[in-house]
Amino acid sequence: MISFIRRNKTALIVGGTALWGAVLIGCVAVNRTLLAPPQIAGATFVGTKECTQCHEDQTGHFDSASHARLAIADPKLGDTGCEACHGPGSIHVAAGGSRGTIINPKKSPETCFQCHLDKRAQFSLPNSHQVLNGKMSCSDCHEVHKGNAIAGTGADLEGMNATCTKCHTQQKGPFVYEHGAMREGCVACHNPHGTINAKMLVARDANLCLRCHLETPDAGSSGQINANAIRHTSENHNSRLMQGTCWSAGCHEQPHGSNASFHFRN
Amino acid sequence: MKTLFSPFIRSAGLLTGACLLGSGISLRAADKAQADAFPNFESYIKISGQAPAVSGNDAAFQNRTRQNANGGAGIEDLHIAKDVDKTTTVTLDGKALVGSEDYLGHFNVTKTNVGSIDAGYKRFRTFYDGVGGFFPLNRQWMPLANEDLHVDRSKFWVEAKLALKDAPEFVIRYTNELRNGQKDSTIWGTTDLTGLPFNLAPNPINPGRKFAPSYMQIGERHEVVEATVKHQIKKTSLRLTLLADRTNNSDTRFVTNYPGEVIPWAVASLSATVPAGQVAAPQNIAKAALPANNWNNQQAITETDAQKTQTNGVNFETDTVLSDQFTLRLGANYDLVHTTIGGGRPIVTQTPTATGVVPVATDAYAGLYGGTRVKDYTGNIALDYKPTKNLFMKFAFRAQSEFIRGSSGYNVIAASGTPAVTLATTPRTGFAKIHQNVRTPVVEVRYTGIKDLALYFNGSKRDLSGVEQNTSSYNPLTAVIGTPAANNVSEDHGNYTLGASWKTSPMLTLRGELFRKGHKDNTVGFATTPATIVGDYYLLDSTYDGYKLTAIAKPIAQFGSTTRFVQQHGRMKVTGFLPTYPAYDSLNSKNYMLSETIDYNPNAQCYFQVAGTLVYHVISTAYPRAGVTPAVVNAAGLTTAVAFDTNRIVQNSDNNYSTITFVSGWVVDKATDAQLQVNSYRADNGNAVLAPLSMPYGVTVRETSVTVGLKHKFSDKWVGNAKVGYFDSKNDTTGGNTNFKGPLAYISFEHAL
Question: Given A175, A203, A243, which is nearest B209 (Cβ)?
Fold first, then answer.
């Protein structure tokens, strides 16, 4: 095993150096720049005023946008205006706005990942919206050119859950029996960027529900779990919780709201 | 180990040195002319194909990689743009990938100062693997008959815009979205096949676990007609929108409880009643002597939720620049929603009789009818104030009034008697009514008056008050009303952010942000009939707070890094059932997320990028602090339940993981680029030790993928791209039953049109 590694060590050194040399020789003879995405090779900053000439709709309200709070250019992005996210625009301007000469975050989330590093990780998880493969984009849910980046928050006219329910209509309701958690928002239970759990749940087990619907120690019963504190419940849930989650088969199957049961049961 | 790896460390050092040497003799990218740059085609067609050769679970591969395990090919991208005349442009976009079932057809014609027509159809597929749970104690795994599930989302739209110069702009748009197919559900069926002993009293441990897979049949339609008129009058822009929104959904969930189980008639016919002086019924004593697949009867549940909604709305918004310092925004919205509902939940139980096992159909509910009506009034006002160049303030207020009322009815069909089965039908009905008012004041401040420093604060406070009346479902033939409740409902929700961005030098920018989200929810009953029922009582007080720290460094032109650390703690207190119960800590959550991205461009012709994230996330509720459930002894002196460790019924929810992505690209020659990408995802939250008292859900996965690609310019009109990758996914959450590995090849050709 050790001799195998030593032989390969030599091969790695010789081969690697040769490969690097070959690439280097090739490189210096080529007038093409390769940069890690999302950057535009050979372009320089032209300033937001230049963008306004064609894109007034996008630039006109940027003062009110959440992203305006950044205000100070960082050394990587180099700009606080349009070009912070869209890349330096000189080639785009020179080409008369030609396609492919400017970074379009709608086509690739790499621009957003430059600051929102954690979102890159979340979107790469098995349970996430399809942003990395281009079926969706960050701007499908976030407004970056004006107002709140997280739509439906603050004093926005549209409701908090509208971003989600425009696609997930079945969960929108209205239901005969509404679940109060929906007033806090879909994000009370789901992380829309992605989680390690199925359905982008922030927890896959009963803890998801027990955060708000705890079973407390019952006074005078030696401190053991007693279900009396669960709303409308006088039953001890120990035996059921052993089997699975609160929303498992036969139990509270309709957490988004129910048309049949006040307890979201069936 | 040291002996084995030291040669590699030396080799890595040599190669790194060579890289640095190379970087020293090359020029920065932006300084060089891009004479050999790959062309950007204005109009083009890109044809591609991909072919995996995966061993293992194909459905899991599809679910994870979002690609068809049988491969696929077609037009990946088509774009044609043509200026018909000086003021008219026509664009056509298309996609047709068979296999991944990804299609797009999009047509747009725009004439400056006249308007545009835009129409299109797109469709894409989401793959699901139809898995249930895995029980580690006896390594039990139950696959669906067909794990290869998918849902197709499609959308057709057509939009006409009239945008004459100096005239109001009119837009009318129709969209029709469909969502059809099958997907897995987290509502899993129960099974006794767990290797745990029958829970014959006084054993308190339930041997059943809910991990039998289930799936949903999705059938949803969403149509929207939207008409908008926009106009600018001096410094005021106006926008009026009329909306007609229709949904027609019918989703059905298929769940099987106790798959493959049936109680022998000899046992089923025994008494299920506990005789006096005993702690177990004769039937249960007999079951305890049988294998697990004789403890219950297989039960197929088919639950359909059908819902049609009609929403009609009107929306009006204005935006007025009052002066250089003030901008005023106003908005108003009214929605009227009507919903009709339908569905049922038939259950078919394989029931033993003296003459054999027969399917018996009952219904948890059938013939669901009823509906809801919502009236929603919303208005907002926002004033942007910019007293100086460096100070921005926004004061906004939103008010909403919502009236929701709904009622429903259905029949319960219950079976009784063996061997002859009698079905009894019982009608049920119920209603609910909510009126709530929401007020949300918002303040935002930004200040950039200090050199290289930006400060900001955002605060919003949503205050809800209302009244809800409801009843649980009741039999209208035997009761005047069910269990009614009338409650005062109030919520107090605050979101606060305080942050700063500081450019310490041209090489380093630091950002910090403190955030707090507080949520109080009070539901307090005030009157019911009969008066002995006090209504609901539920108080929730939660706080999530934390901070984000970001450091963005670029010490040299070739090297940059971004580091981000996010910390969040959550706490909740809940009081429920009766006012005499004190508030308890129901949640203690901790979430730490460290992310790093490093970009290194040693020279103009190669780059390296590493991005990684490490997450520690734990959610703890009351259970792990519950203590031990004591033994219970009945009046006859018999032990009816033994003591056991309640703490382990629901353990902490661990959601820890790490991801790493490495990407490197090189210029190989004038017409060729190469790229290497490595991805890794790890999670290790499994805990099989929990299984005797719980269903362990913790995710444990190890995934690695490596992709090598070449991009080559054949001519000024032809560009090709080829990639070869290898995926390896090991999923211990499913006991290795969804593992897959194997190579994947991809090739594409792009041609200028």
Answer: A243
Distance between A106 CA and the closest CA of chain B, angstroms: 15
Residue carrying the six token digits 């859900």:
B697
For chain A, positions 21-80, list CB contacts with chain B under 8 A.
21, 23-24, 26-37, 41-44, 61, 63-64, 68-77
Q: Do B339 and A5 touch (CB under 8 A)?
A: no
Judge whether residue B3 has pLDDT over 50.
no
How close A131 comes to chain B (CA, Å)? 11
Convert the pLDDT of each residue in B372-414 to its tens digit.
Answer: 999 999 999 999 999 998 999 999 999 999 999 999 999 998 8
Distance CA B90, CA B118 (A): 10
pLDDT of residue A174: 93
Chain B: closest CA distance from residue A86 (Å): 16
Tell me the chain B residues in contact with residue A244 when contact means C-beta distances shorter than 8 Å.
Answer: 133, 188, 190, 209-211, 695
pLDDT of residue B278: 83
Place of tokens 């696959």: B143
Q: Looking at the predicted structure, is the pLDDT value of residue A221 above 80? A: no
- Asked if B93 contacts B82 with a C-beta cutoff of 8 angstroms, the reply is no
Tell if the CB–CB gap between A157 and B398 is shorter than 8 Å: yes
Task: State the burial class of residue A42 (Cβ atoms within 10 Å of its Cβ: 0-12, 13-18, 19+).
Answer: buried
HEC letters along chain A: CHHHHHHHHHHHHHHHHHHHHHHHHHHHCCCCCCCCCCCCCCCCCCCHHHHHCCCHHHHCCHHHCHHHHCCCCCCCCCCCCHHHHHCCCHHHHHCCCCCCCCCCCCCCCHHHHCCCHHHHHHHCCCECCCCCCCCCCHHHCECCCCCCCECCCCCCCCCCCHHHHCCCHHHCCCCCEECCHHHHCHHHCECCCCECCHHHECCCCCHHHHCCCCCCECCCCCCCECHHHCCCCCCCCHHHHHHCCCCCCCCCCCCCEECCCCCCCC
**A156 with B398: Cβ contact below 8 A:** yes
Q: Is the pLDDT of residue B458 over 50?
A: yes
The pTM is what?
0.90
Domain residue extents for chain A: 173-266
Using a CB-CB distance cutoff of 8 angstroms, which residues of chain B are in contact with residue A30?
Answer: 36, 605, 667, 669-670
Q: How confident is residue B476, by pLDDT bands cut at 50, 70 and 90?
A: confident
Q: Which residues contact B2 (CB under 8 A, 6 or more apart)?
A: none
- Bridge pairing between strands B346-353 and B391-416: unpaired
Q: Which residues pair with A127 in a beta bridge?
A: A195
**B726 touching A (Cβ < 8 Å):** no
**pLDDT tens digit string along B173-195?**
999 999 999 999 999 999 999 99
What pLDDT, on the 0 to 100 scale, is given for residue B581? 65
Peptide bond into B743 cis (omega under 30): no
Cα–Cα distance, B749 to B48 (Å, whole number): 6
Q: Is residue B635 exposed (0-12), middle (13-18) or buried (19+ Cβ within 10 Å)? A: exposed
Q: CB distance A225–B629 less than 8 Å?
A: yes
B90-137 residue pLDDT tens: 999 999 999 999 999 999 999 999 999 999 999 999 999 999 999 999
pLDDT digit string (tens) for B322-379? 999 999 999 999 999 999 999 999 999 999 988 899 998 888 889 999 999 999 999 9
Count of alpha carbons within 13 Å of B42, Cβ hemisphere only?
11
Signed CA dihedral, B159, B165, B167, B168: sign only: positive
C-beta of residue B351 within 8 angstroms of C-beta of residue B357: yes
**Helical (H) or strand (E) element with B19:** helix B2-24
ipTM of model: 0.91
Average pLDDT, chain B: 90
